[in-house]
Amino acid sequence: MGTKTIGVKDDVYDRLKARKREDESFTDLVNRLLDEATMDWDEGFGTLDAEEAEELEQVVETSRKQTSAGLAERQQEALEELTDAEDADEAA
């Protein structure tokens, strides 16, 4: 297994060194930090409290209603334009 040399700013090095355990290398430290930072995709599910969940549901419902209303309005406008175009073709 090969090695790579990377450059980090002095303050980053100091922060890493402060977290490094006495018995671990910097490679071990980076591996440990990466393992700690790796999260399962579902780890955060179910963490909203009841109030936050209710607020989110309200926001989603409002968004759905606005989207639905916007779509219905655009559909109506498109139908009116088609009807007007057909009427114009018949009159010609």
TrEMBL record:
Residues 78-92 have a biased composition (Acidic residues). InterPro entries: Put_antitoxin. Residues 60-92 are annotated as: Disordered. It comes from the Archaea. Keywords: Toxin-antitoxin system. Pfam families: VAPB_antitox (PF02697). This is Antitoxin VapB family protein.
